[in-house]
Amino acid sequence: MNRATTRLRALAALPFVLTLTTYLVLLALWDDRIPDTLATHFGGADGARADGFTGRTAFLALGAALILGLGTGWTVLVRRTVLWGAWATAGFAGTLLVLLVRDNLDAVDPAEVVSPLGNLALAAAVAAVLALVGWGLTRLVPEGDPAGPPATADGPRLTLGASEVAGWSRATASRPLTVLGVLALAAVPAGLLLAPWPGSLLALLGLVVGVPGLALARVRVTVDRRGVTVRPALVPRPRVRVPLDEVVGASVRELDTAAVLADFGGWGYRVRAHRTGVVLHSGETLVVQRDSGREFAVTVPDARTAAALLNTLAERHGKV
User: Fold this and answer.
1) Which of 86, 112, 205, 313 is the Cys-Cys partner for 12 at CB 3.0 to 4.6 Å?
2) Does residue 227 lie in a domain region?
3) Would you indicate the residue range of the signal peptide (predicted)?
4) Crossing angle for the helix pair 118-137 and 3-29, nearest 10 degrees?
5) The pTM of the whole model exceeds 0.70
6) Which residues are 220's β-sheet partners?
7) Lowest-pLDDT range of 53-57, 163-167, 177-181
8) Cα-based distances in Å from 225 to 106, 138, 188, 312, 315
9) Element (H, E) at 269
10) Are 131 and 29 in the same domain?
11) Rounded distance, CA 215 to CA 49, Å?
12) Do residues 231 and 131 share a domain?
């Protein structure tokens, strides 16, 4: 992992470390004032009356787990251009948790607890301030990406007759993403069985993580006269396509774990300053150089055949 990536991830983790520390310190200070049951969901005509409740231990643990989960996700997936989002997320989630605990302090009957809608405005204000802080810290992270070996017009070729047409297609999968997607979706029904506040949040997180996780867990890569297409193996959408008229050249690169983290910042669908990619695992990778100067990469078996065919088709098209 290069120094810029390490610094970016440290800056993304920092607001969540500060938020978790503040949350735990306040819990310690308020320990004797926090009731055994907390009002954690509010509704009614004014949206401020308690109608959902959670035990003290479960709520405090879920609050800490929420901060840790959000922090881990942002730290692993963060990009330089959205560092501000990590700070805003930490500020918004942390402020809401603290205000919710504050509203429950010294409550004898949790059904009488009121959480004013102004809490949302205050949390949004804190998020906006911290977003500005995160945006300012972006300048501490150098622009650009470490450059790997470029894909060029000197890549492999596949011999085709003047009247021959050809296509190539392979599926590639990620077991970790499959497991993550299944576990996340399993959290949806589990969350619906819990109390409204933590349950709805858990179900929402399960959907947000599980659906795109399973969509990316197994993809099909196709090279034909239209260019390169990557789509989920079981459904036609969503898909990523590099049109043939944008292809300058294609080559093969071997990506190990260090290169995946350094060049793409992790696994999944990745967008970096000079490249995009669908990176499901380490190993053989098809790398496409586009006429814009950007690269598109996808990890897939038999990438050499795909690169050779793509170069031949692009050469026929007049780009190579």
Assistant:
1) 86
2) yes
3) none
4) 150
5) no
6) 171, 231
7) 177-181
8) 70, 41, 41, 10, 11
9) strand 268-271
10) yes
11) 39
12) no
